[in-house]
Amino acid sequence: MNKHDSEKIAGILQDSGFQYEKDLSNADIIIFNTCTVRESADGRLFGQLGNIKRLKEEKPDLIVAIGGCLAQSYGGKLLFQFPQLDIVFGTHNINRFSYLLNERIKSGNKVFELKSEDNYDVSCLPTLREKPFLAWVSIMRGCNNFCSYCIVPYVRGKQWSRSAYEIIEEVKNLTLDGVIEITLLGQNVNSYGKDLNDEMNFPQLLEKLSQISKLKRIRFITSHPKDFDNETVKVVAESEILCNHFHFPLQSGSNKVLQDMNRRYTKEQYLKLIDEIYRMIPDASITTDIIVGFPTETEEDFLETLDVVEKAKFDSAFTFIYSPRSGTKAIGFKDISSNEEKMNRFSRLVDKQTNISQMKNNYLIGKNLDILVEDFSKKDKKMLMGRTKTNKIVNFKGDSNLIGKIVNVKIILAKAHYLIGELKIN
Ligand code: 5AD
Ligand code: SF4
């Protein structure tokens, strides 16, 4: 969602005559679009602000702005804490960025705005997309779930679904603009539409979008096990362009911890949903998010998480150590394990998942897969990088004119986090 919002901020600036500048020391405006989901994100931002202080001393006209979740959470006090900042704007104020920037330039005063508006929509704002053939499409904003560890509902507000008609129109227009892959965004896409009257639910929306001609791939993140339904799996199974990848956060494999996290499903229900996905779509990939060291997690609870990870056979997992966030319910929970125990659990989890990811990728060696070529590989500029429908990264040798196209490659080598392929010449 932050990447999507950043493309909107960049679009606003481009419309006002600014250009993207890679080199920070040449920039006239620097904008941080922040995350605050874990303390490490805050830390990274504060570190960067130190570097910016030096730049600002050399170039006093430089304008430094901070938006996003950290800005929403910390508010105007950031301007006092960090004198190098000029503008602070909240998660619901992106549509006002142009106005705030003009205010700063005209008046010379520092500005901040954190108003929180219901039905806040950024879809009509201009966009500067990183890749012309890929687009993020936000189908809803905010979240009503209040998982006890999570700050998102406090900084992004309550769930608000966009009208299906508007989403479909936006996607049609994107295809006219050359987009062939879209990623639908929502904190909990399976609850899409529950706050609207007489509109479509998520599988119905998917079905409608999958009929748009010229669109080659549709992805969606993030699914929530409590609202996930087989209808969604059925629609994905029946469509060529709906990608067979499900990002399906588990968070913990212990029913006690899941309850303390307010996740509203059990590990048994979770595993049953996964079985159903694999039964209906045998080549589906399933990825997840897992938190270790939640305050009430014991070693036995953690072993249950390892057990679910073993059974679920995730393709990959984002793993996190619990990070206390002020204002959330879990901040009041007594923490029963030490940092060493948490680090130890974290590395055991990462080891187990890396082995499973490697095993699942080994299975793809020798297979021919369609990939959408996105760019040069970050690791090796002589290679191209693309993604399979299952969202696996494949690096292969090929000409740069393949970027933006779907090509067929034979997988010749598997690593835990990416694959190496060979272009098939038809
Ligand atoms: N500590 C650690 N991880 C967190 N996440 C959300 N809040 C926290 C927190 N306080 C993780 C969850 C979520 C992902 C986006 O970030 O796993 O799914
Ligand atoms: Fe946070 Fe839970 Fe909402 Fe995800 S579903 S954004 S973890 S509160």
What does this structure look like?
The strands form 5 sheets. A 5-stranded mixed barrel has the order 13-14-15-17-16. By secondary structure, it is of the alpha/beta class. The mean pLDDT is 95. The protein has helices at residues 2-15, 39-58, 69-74, 77-81, 97-107, 152-156, 164-176, 202-209, 230-238, 255-260, 267-280, 299-312, 339-362; strands at 29-34, 63-68, 87-89, 111-113, 134-138, 140-141, 160-161, 181-185, 217-221, 245-247, 285-292, 316-321, 368-376, 384-388, 393-396, 406-414, 419-423. Bound molecules: 5'-deoxyadenosine (5AD) and iron/sulfur cluster. Residues 37-38, 149-150, 249, 251, 289, 291, 320, 322-323, 325 line the site of 5'-deoxyadenosine (5AD). The site of 5'-deoxyadenosine has 12 residues, from β11.
Key terms:
four-stranded parallel beta sheet, Transcription Regulator spoIIAA, OB fold (Dihydrolipoamide Acetyltransferase, E2P), single chain, binds iron/sulfur cluster, binds 5'-deoxyadenosine
Compact description:
By secondary structure, the chain is α/β, with parallel strands linked by helices. It has 13 helices and 17 strands.
